[in-house]
Amino acid sequence: MKRANNQLLSDIKDRLLSYRVIEDTTGCWLFTRAISSNGYGIISFKNKRYSTHRLSAHLFLGLDLESKLYANHKNICPNRRCFNPEHLYIGTHNSNMSDMREKNSCCGICGNKYDGIKVRQNGRIDRKCMNCSRRYIRESQARRKRK
Ligand SMILES: [Zn+2]
Ligand SMILES: [Zn+2]
Q1: pTM (two decimals)
Q2: Which residues of the chain have pLDDT under 70?
Q3: pLDDT (tens digit, 9 = 90+) per residue, 46-73?
Q4: How far is the CA of 58 from the centre of ligand 2 (A)?
Q5: 93 burial level (CB within 10 Å; 0-12, 13-18, 19+)
Q6: What residues have CB less than 8 Å from 92, skipping those under 6 apart?
Q7: What is the distance in A from the centroid of ligand 2 to the CA of 138?
Q8: Counting ligands in written order, which one lies closest to the CA of residue 110?
Q9: How far is the CA of 116 from the centre of ligand 1 (A)?
Q10: What separation in Å is there between the alpha carbon of 129 and the centre of ligand 1?
């Protein structure tokens, strides 16, 4: 039983990491698949859905998924869909106090509603809508390939 569990864990870890794009300026691990309405990555595995940041905290930081503890993003991390364990910490409170402000902001590129990713660039935070995020992720993937 224990062994089966470990196998499951390494399978889901491989899958999680195969959907990762590492953001150059922030070091964020951006999840490139499904994103929930509140901006967190979502991965399905064996008929269960997991938030990617929470799953990552489980895989890399030892968070018990059954516990009431939260996986929070550190201040250094501007992206909810980021699942870099170095950008996460386990806490007793959900630290999403800036939710409202976030929801009402706009994409820095096209001015549409911000619903994608944030990128920290030259000391400022650049918010992008979903479309601009997709393009950004594609471009950074292409950049990596060229390297
Ligand atoms: Zn991050
Ligand atoms: Zn945009």
Answers
A1: 0.72
A2: 1-4, 95-103, 147
A3: 889 999 999 999 999 999 998 989 999 9
A4: 32
A5: exposed
A6: 68, 69, 70
A7: 14
A8: 2
A9: 14
A10: 17
